[in-house]
Amino acid sequence: MKSKTDMLSGNAIKSIIVFALPIMLSSLLQYNYALVDNIIVGRYVSTDALAAVGNVGSINSFIIGAALGLTSGFTIPVAHAFGAGDKRKVAHYSGSSIVVALLVGIIIVITAHLLSTPLLKLIGTPAKIINLSSAYVNILYFGVPFQMLSNNFTAISRAVGESRKPLYFFMISVFVNFCLDMLFVKTFGWGVEGAAAATLISHITAASLTGFYIIKLNDDVQITKEDLKFHPKTALKQIGLGIPVSLQFTITSVGSMCLQSAVNSFGANVIAGFTAASRVENLTNLPMSGLGVATQTFVGQNYGAKNYDRIVKSVKRIFLLDLCVSIAMSIILYLISKPMVSLFMTSPNAEMITAANRYILATCQCYSLVAVLFVLRNTLQGLGFTYANMVAGAGELAGRILIAFVFSRTGSVAACRYSACVNLSFKTPQVQKTRA
């Protein structure tokens, strides 16, 4: 069986689904970094440690989400060039994206370490867990350049129709993370610092493997030394595409920090329950997000090939498919939530369980909106309309702030989760009228 998926001909929906499956599994493996950290810290350290690790989730989304959003924009021209059959441009844009990702990653590391503790204080982190949160996150941020590189290498691979190879590399890195987590946390007793160090090493592993594949082994991306030089004009174009995507993640993450601040007002037990529930919910998000990423690649390649009718017809069908998937995921989330949440805690109390249950119930009622968002957002990004998604993120931010802070004053934890379901979607523009 060929590992590469043909997005430019044949049954479009079949191609998107086949392409999306490895992406879903890769996302699951990437998500396992945080999942494994949460389970092992919660079971082998303490409930406070679990709350501390979960508490940094919104800040991680703010900083790391901004970084990875940039790389998503960097590789949009790669898909366009591949669809147009221009291998020289594929190599040029790929090489430039690698250089820019590394440089930006170094800048973000420095900035993240300066902002992490002030941000923890800003979101109202309880005094009993703020030192644990700070210790965890400040080690974790050394991995940002490696995360950006591995995400960039993976995005290049997907842009040229290959979604399976990155899956194999992430399998290795997740295995490394699990083994080191058990060694550092359970055996050595290094606590949250050990969990962060294990994740850092696994990110280095993923970046090394994906980078070797793209630079040395992928025949569709024949990068030369000249391509790996800094080209200001190309870099500015890629950064111009990446900044709106990054800002979209950043704006959304500001809303998440506001949400976390509202949750923090309920105390460490509710934080722990909210953390466990959100980790379970993220698992059932993966099929929808995977279809969204596959749609972005499909749209990008066909836009480069000028297959505009194919884009319009196929996006309508994938839209209906994603809605059906969202309904199925809502049911699955409701059924698996209780046993999954219990994995994160050795001695859960009633307050933790109640908070987790309310979070899950509210999420199940919002999943169809999430499906709409994933399809439209990734379609726009595939076309190069990254600024529209930034505006959508601003609408989401307003909704999160309004609902989280207005309704959390009533003492309702569920209201905090409803705020995360507020998203502003835009109608996909007529692709026939767009310009490269």
Could you characterize the architecture of this molecule?
- With 436 residues, this protein is mainly α.
- Helices cover 80% and strands 0% of the residues.
- Helix 1 packs parallel to helix 8 and helix 2 packs parallel to helix 11.
- The longest helix has 37 residues.
- The chain is globular.
- The C terminus is likely disordered.
What are its keywords?
single chain, 16 helices, globular, mainly alpha, 80% helix, 436 residues
Describe the secondary-structure layout.
Elements: H1 12-44, H2 47-55, H3 57-74, H4 76-83, H5 87-122, H6 127-140, H7 144-159, H8 165-187, H9 191-217, H10 232-264, H11 268-304, H12 308-342, H13 350-364, H14 367-383, H15 386-407, H16 413-419
Helix pairs in contact: 1-2, 1-8, 1-9, 1-11, 2-6, 2-11, 3-5, 3-7, 3-10, 4-5, 4-11, 5-6, 5-7, 5-10, 6-9, 7-9, 8-9, 10-15, 10-16, 11-12, 11-13, 11-14, 12-13, 12-14, 13-16, 15-16
Beta percentage is under 5%
Listing every helix as H and every strand as E from the N terminus to the C terminus, the arrangement reads HHHHHHHHHHHHHHHH
Alpha-beta classification: mainly alpha
Overall shape: globular
Helix content: over 70%
- Stretches with pLDDT under 50, minimum 5 residues: 418-436
Mean of residue pLDDT values: 82
Q: How many distinct beta strands?
A: 0
Computed CA radius of gyration, to the nearest angstrom: 21 Å
Concise structural overview:
Helices cover 80% and strands 0% of the residues. It has helices at residues 12-44, 47-55, 57-74, 76-83, 87-122, 127-140, 144-159, 165-187, 191-217, 232-264, 268-304, 308-342, 350-364, 367-383, 386-407, 413-419. α4 runs antiparallel to α5.
